[in-house]
Amino acid sequence: MNSANAAYSLKAAPADAATDAVVKVNGRPILQSRIDFLLKSRGVQDQSDGGENLNQALNMLISQELLYQEAVKLGYETKPDVATRIEINKEEAVIDAYLWDCAQSRPIGEDKVIEAYEYQKALFGDKEYKAHHILVDTEDEATQILGELEKGTGFEELAIEHSVDGGSKFRGGDLDWMSPLYDLPQFHDAMKKLGKGEVTQTPVQSEYGWHIIRVDDERPLAFPALEEVKPKIYTHLQRQAVDALIAELRAKAEIE
């Protein structure tokens, strides 16, 4: 091959049976296994036709190989930040392969997905709420704002003036309809105790600060069907399994 820009056809370069090399670039082989891996990572399942997908993959790898060789020649492979990145990429590849095998050997069954779904459905009840809130940093400030509300100052006016929630502040604290599935537990618990038009009598603390909440309306919660949320539940359970594995490894490890 004479140029990095030239198209290379697989039909002109069958794999070498001894080395699995499809083509050599300045003496360095590009293996069929590398082409297969690239196509697999792109979701190409049928690699048997020797067609455009294969040729595109090969030409991409030839260009990549030429750039790699030039970078190595200029000493980039030994630069500290590059060496660190290479080591990190290597570790991530090994970890990904390990976790994949763990997932295959300990698959999450349909029963676990259904159990998690039913738990979430029961946890968040059967209602959703239309609400306003004012979020501030301290309990004292929230208490002062409650005093202003008792004097007749408008909720929306106080939200615009004091709230630190940038998403709702300039809408007067309007949160629109909120599914409890996405609410903070403390926030949801406070809303459940309020009737339409009622405001929390004391500030409600969450990880974000102190809330004053007004419930404007409520309606039955249209909880998503199992099939709709199954992929998210499955992903969540997989993450839980990985967290449990990490906790197990940490418990046995010597970390100094």
List the helices and strands and how they pair.
Blueprint: E1 21-25, E2 28-31, H1 32-41, H2 52-73, H3 80-105, H4 110-123, E3 127-136, H5 139-150, H6 155-162, E4 174-178, H7 185-192, E5 204-206, E6 209-220, H8 226-252
Antiparallel strand pairs: 1-2, 3-4, 3-6, 5-6
Quick structural gist:
The protein is an alpha+beta fold and 256 residues long.
Architecture overview:
With 256 residues, the protein is an alpha+beta fold. The protein has 3 domains: 1-74, no CATH class; 110-118 and 224-252, no CATH class; 125-220, Chitinase A, domain 3 (Roll). It has 8 helices and 6 strands. It has helices spanning 32-41, 52-73, 80-105, 110-123, 139-150, 155-162, 185-192, 226-252; strands at 21-25, 28-31, 127-136, 174-178, 204-206, 209-220. The strands form 2 sheets. It has a 4-stranded antiparallel β-sheet. Strand 5 and strand 6 form a beta hairpin. Helix 4 (110-123) crosses helix 8 (226-252). Mean pLDDT is 87; it is low at 1-18.
Low-confidence stretches: 1-18
Q: Sketch the topology as an H/E string, one letter per element.
A: EEHHHHEHHEHEEH
CATH architecture of the largest domain: Roll
Terminus-to-terminus distance: 54 Å
Spatial strand sequence of the major β-sheet:
4-3-6-5
Q: Structural class given helices, strands, pairing?
A: alpha+beta
Radius of gyration: 29 Å
Mean pLDDT: 87
Apparent shape: elongated
Helical residue percent? 40-55%
**Beta strands, count:** 6
